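Hey,

Quick one before I head out. I ran the complex with S-adenosylmethionine overnight. Inputs first:
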Amino acid sequence: MTVDRMAYGGRGVGRVDGYVVFVSDTAPGDRVRARLWRVKSGYAEADLVAVESPSVLRTAPPCPHFGPCGGCAWQHLDYGAQVTAKEDIVRESLTHLAGLRDIEVLPIVRMTDPWYYRNRMEFTFHSDGTLGLHRRGAFDKIVPIETCLLQSPATNEILRIVGDWARERGLSRYDARAHTGLLRQLVVREGKRTGEIMVGLVTTAPEVPGTDTLAARLTTAVPRITGILHGINPGVSDGLPLARVSVVAGRPYLKEELAGFQFHIGLETFFQTNTVQAGRLVEVVEAMADLAGGEAVLDLYCGIGTFSLPLARRARRVCGIEIAPQAVEAARENAALNQVANVEFVAGDVRRLLPEVVGRTGRPHLLVLDPPRSGAGSRVMRKIVDAGAPRIVYVSCNPTTLAPDLADLVRGGYAVRAVQPLDQFPHTYHVECAVLLERAGPPQPA
Ligand SMILES: C[S@@+](CC[C@H](N)C(=O)[O-])C[C@H]1O[C@@H](n2cnc3c(N)ncnc32)[C@H](O)[C@@H]1O
């Protein structure tokens, strides 16, 4: 078959006798042989057997771990082809999943330099002695990493030092099946604007011999390290929050700048992963918001205030709603740190709090939302329609959940005015999108 396009999820898509087939590790324009492994009524999934005639959009992946490593799935695609594919995915989702016709999707905001862009990486210690990233499609296996092109060359040096230290000390590694072992993760965070680096070691228990030696080696080799932290996670799941975080050396937070504001980022604090593109996303949201100074703004799913603080510069007041108490605390600290007085952050579920906040503060002039990957869903969309803001900016990291939410807003009386995709995650299939909607008529039930 010939691969026509890339799909959300990362696989190539083609048609065989009109029948849709998804094949991984392919590029648009490839002529491939593939073996079907799942056949459904509307589509089939296949494994790549051989590329008979490679696409001109293919390029040699520069990373030695590309393929087995689950970090990047699109390094075999030329960067221009990656961003075109992302624009197409956004267009396809809005047309086919939301039924939105005649919507212009603006050219994607791409990265000038799409390498070393991440400000946070998390590596896993595996019971087989390796330290690396999860193997593609196998979350209990690790690909040992020597060089990663996503964060910064300093990260590779940190990986090597921590890996050597753990081996020399003979420290046990966490085994997720047996729930035994000490070392779990190595987290590296980097302030892309400030140059500061934070190293976090996550273990199952508090007693870890030799962390002082490790700290001395790290700070000597990488003087940009301003904090070395130790987090304890005795639980079964790898997720946050950690049971405890202590400082081994330096400061408990990293300084970073975004959109002209300072942020203090702890080991667990959520922060947009690509600082450069997050800055451009804030600019897009500000341009879409088009505030004049007297407006009341609601920022739903506001996290640590990434949009709330910049929007407050040109609004009368901004109210952010966020479910994670640590994020709300960080947002309040960030507001104080930057002397922004006209923002308020409320902790709780958007679904419950939105009507309450609107009842208290009145109809917002602008409503911004940036929900998690799963989208906000119909019930929240109904409440957003009821809130009656004349203008909405919807920021999404998943076009397949954005589409049904937009369809609800359009049914509720809004019109899509602009769709701006952004590439926040080069070499992966992920695509960010900011959408401007305006109320086209009187509110309708969604
Ligand atoms: C994609 S992040 C947006 C973060 C934010 N815009 C920022 O840049 O800091 C989604 C946020 O929604 C929050 N969240 C998830 N479900 C929520 C809910 N039901 N109500 C309020 N916030 C929620 C998460 O904790 C997370 O901070």
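The two ends are 42 Å apart (CA to CA).

Talk tomorrow,
K.
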